[in-house]
Specification:
Elements lengths: L1 H20 L4 H29 L3 H22 L9
Length: 88
């Protein structure tokens, strides 16, 4: 879970860098913003998951980790909704 937290933090940093380039079409910008929101929520969920795990509630921790995994999948799927809309 700690590695997932580190990866999510790095992903947020990368998304912010991409958003700051301004070289994307509106569809891609919306996708990136959506992913930023998803990963930001994922970090909160992971922190909660670690706390729950440390108290021995492994089932709840598992649910939280699955939710984070779903967020990553959702981010990827958003980009697949419209082909050819990545850069100018």
């Amino acid at each position: 879970m700690e590695l997932a937290l580190e990866n999510a933090t790095t992903t947020i940093s990368n998304i912010r860098s991409l958003l700051n380039t301004g070289s994307f079409k509106p569809f891609a910008l919306a996708c990136l913003q959506n992913c930023l929101d998803l990963y930001s929520e994922a970090i909160v969920t992971l922190v909660d998951g670690v706390a729950v795990f440390l108290t021995g509630h492994y089932g709840i921790a598992n649910v939280k980790v699955r939710a984070v995994m779903e967020a990553a999948t959702t981010c990827e799927e958003v980009f697949n909704q419209k082909e050819g809309e990545y850069t100018d």
